[in-house]
Amino acid sequence: MQDATKPTAQTDERIKEISAFRKALIRPELGGMVGTIAVFTFFLLFAFDSGMFNSQGIMNWSIVSAQFMIIAVGACLLMIAGEFDLSVGSMIGFAGMMVAIFSVTFGWPTWIAILVTFALCIAIGALNGWIVIRTGLPSFIVTLAFLFILRGFTIFLPQVIERKTIIGGIKDVAEGDWLAAIFGGKILQGAFVWLGDAGLIATFERGTRKGQPVVDGVPMLIVWALVLIVIGHVLLTKTKFGNWIFASGGDAEAARNSGVPVNKVKILMFMFTAFCATVFAMCQVMEFGSAGADRGLLKEFEAIIAVVIGGALLTGGYGSVLGAALGALIFGVVQQGLFFAGVESSLFRVFLGVILLGAVILNTYIRRIITGER
Questions:
Q1: CB 308 within 8 Å of CB 364
Q2: pLDDT of residue 15
Q3: Which residue, among 38, 7, 107, 18, has the nearest Cα to 309 in the 3D structure?
Q4: CA-closest candidate to residue 128, choices 118, 143, 111
Q5: DSSP string, 133-184
Q6: Is 290 helix (H, G, I), strand (E, B) or coil?
Q7: Mean pLDDT, rounded, for 160-171
């Protein structure tokens, strides 16, 4: 029998109870999950017999999705910290051109060219963050300026040095390089040969490659995407630094008063965004064997859209790396799926506009639930 003198637990009236449905509704991944299910359902119904879901089709949209995922991870963490980086696309073109100039034109070993390019691009990311912190200017303006600065250098430097805006020959100089293989190689090739021999995936039926699998391995681009997603998710949800990221974007002044090094967090996130853009560039130049001055156009907007689709708020302080990854997956599947479904490819831009508007409306509604606004 309970002792009547002992105090009983009571619900504090100041604590507002949240229903299970509302708890699920405010998860940042919700929009990405719903969108992913809807997109796959649509293409399973209308493009299943087109080859979209055979081994080669899956690899095609997986590669495109992985490209979006790599830059979306960096953009996601930066947006949660309350900032934007509109120079991501130009950074991709600049990084690719630098590694081409260093390795092909200057004749440096490819691994040195890659490391120097990473150091240079990360330093530019730090400069972006430093200017934002020191001047108090919106990151939108600062990085917009660097969008033009980096694109200008990407066009100017190869014209001055090589008299052209495309530099090839990267695959030749990177042959056998240990670091280049980390960005341009493939893994699990033996597994795909086994799958081909077992008749589980398509193989070539004629020519010199008869009997070999059409898909002969997983590109390092996809591996990098998965690794960055895991790192970003763990950093954001399992570490004290992840709490600092949320705090910096939610209320920077309150975070400072609580001892959070807000300036350091923001600068590090700019550096990480630059790192992700450079990873994308390295994988791209190793795949194509060349660097072009027009590479990376509009990628900054595609990264932001993927993050918004994934549930991040434009005001900062809320979001999910997994959600951003799902947003990038939606991008890749739709971009390739429209081709398989026989739909005019220009409608992809229409889809981007519609889904961005829908995601912003949903995220605004979620923000009102969180903050109690009406």
A1: no
A2: 47
A3: 38
A4: 143
A5: HHH---HHHHHHHHHHHHHHHHHHHHHHHHSSSEEE-HHHHHTT-HHHHHHH
A6: strand
A7: 90
Count of residues for the chain? 374
pTM (whole model) above 0.85: yes
Q: What is the pLDDT of residues 308-365, one digit of tens each?
A: 888 888 888 888 999 999 999 988 888 888 887 777 777 777 877 787 787 777 767 7
Name all contacts of 163-167 with Cβ < 8 Å and 24+ positions apart. 165/292, 165/293, 165/294, 166/290, 166/291, 166/292, 166/293, 167/97, 167/100, 167/101, 167/104, 167/105, 167/290, 167/291
Which tokens sit at 340?
């398989």
Nearest by Cα to 289 from 179, 186, 184, 216: 184
What are the CA-CA distances from residue 88 to residues 52, 196, 278, 301, 312 (Å)? 30, 39, 9, 9, 18
Q: Is 311 helix (H, G, I), strand (E, B) or coil?
A: coil
Question: Would you tell me how many other CB atoms lie within 10 Å of the CB of residue 131?
Answer: 19
Half-sphere exposure of 243 (CA within 13 A, CB side): 8
Per-residue model confidence (pLDDT) at position 14: 47
The DSSP letter of residue 102 is I
Question: Do residues 228 and 73 make contact, with C-beta atoms less than 8 angstroms apart?
Answer: yes
For residue 196, give Cα distances in angstroms to 49, 50, 202, 206, 217.
Answer: 20, 20, 6, 14, 11
The answer for 296, left when phi > 0, alpha when psi is -120 to 50, beta otherwise, is left
Q: Provide the b/e sequence for 333-359 (b: ≥16 CB within 10 Å).
A: bbbbbbbbbeeeeeebeebbeebbeeb
Exposed, middle or buried by CB within 10 Å (0-12, 13-18, 19+), for 195?
A: middle
Residue 1 pLDDT > 60:
no
Beta pairing, strands 290-292 & 166-168: antiparallel
In three-state secondary structure terms, 287 is helix
pLDDT digits (tens, 9 = 90+) for 141-150: 999 999 999 9
Q: What are the backbone angles phi and psi of residue 109, rounded to the nearest 5°?
A: -55, 140
Question: In Å, how far are 41, 49, 345, 346 from 341, measured between CA atoms?
Answer: 13, 9, 10, 13
Report how many helices (DSSP H) and strands (DSSP E) the chain contains, helices first: 16, 4
Whether residue 47 contacts residue 339, with contact meaning beta carbons closer than 8 Å, is answered with no
